[in-house]
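Final report, Chapter 2: Outcomes

The project's central promise was a pipeline that accepts a single protein chain and returns its three-dimensional structure in a standardized token representation, suitable for archiving and comparison. That pipeline is now operational. To close this chapter, we reproduce one record exactly as it appears in the project archive, with the input sequence first and the structure output second.
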Amino acid sequence: MKHWISAARPRTLPLALSSIFMGSFLAAGAHAFSWTTFTLAVLTTIFLQVLSNFANDYGDTVSGVDTAERTVATRAVQTGAITREQMTRAMIVMAVLSFITGSWLIYEGLKDTSTQAILTFFGLGILAIIASITYTVGKRPYGYMGLGDISVLIFFGWVGVLGTYYLFAHEFVWLNVLPATSCGLFAVGVLNINNIRDIESDTKTGKNSIPVRLGKDKAVIYHWFLLGTGFLCTVIYETIITLKEHSEFNINLSYKNTDLHLNVGTGDQNFNLLWLNWLFVVTVPLLIRICKGLAKGKTPAQIDPFLKVMALTTLLFVITFGIGQLI
């Protein structure tokens, strides 16, 4: 059992769930939250992430990317702890579970919407399953061509956050693209750490990840860009929200004189709680520490711990952001 738990890579789950939490927090802020939809979204995401991890374990071994030289974050199929046939069956089980819970999620979240919306989400669900498998499995795995970053941004960012929000609220809000992009870029950051750690082995086996293409030093600069841009997107989002609320407050003061005292009280209360909207700023030291640690890390063993730190920091970022949405 411990080999299966290891192959499922539980430390990747906080990152996978971050986009679901982000979309759910945005929906709760819009008074459109449902526990049933949330639970199904969480289950579907867990199944998809485990499917992706199993496929990655299988694909990297079959393709020869993971060899006996790998000493950090070894794979179950690579070491022989799990056979290829067993892993194939496990992938099929995870794909089926993902389809079942995903279908139930779509029904629960979109039963009162249009057929077009339902079909669109079914299509996205099928694409998510295919993307989970073909990252490292198949004749031309897109992860080996340096396209994993784009896929992670799309599915862990825009699809994950905006799709979750739509399942609750049945609407698309352009402003939500900003926190969705933050979530996606931080997820790309986790992948980038993984690829920086494996840069030597990937170079030998022909896996052309972004760090392999850029080199370690530029890959670290790229990491600063990912985290800095991701953080900036949420800063812009909160700034717009704050200005919007402040503008409405002024209109109330100017045109609703009869309610002047009541509106001033409401405005003061919102102002006193405004700092909670910026609670996510507490993650800045952690983000800086990760980037500096990557620059200093010389071996896979020195870089590997930052994977867990980055995933948990992303989750902390989402939770602190979400607190501001709930006030």
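Archive annotation: The chain has a mean pLDDT of 85.
This record, like all others produced under the grant, will remain available to the consortium after the project formally closes.
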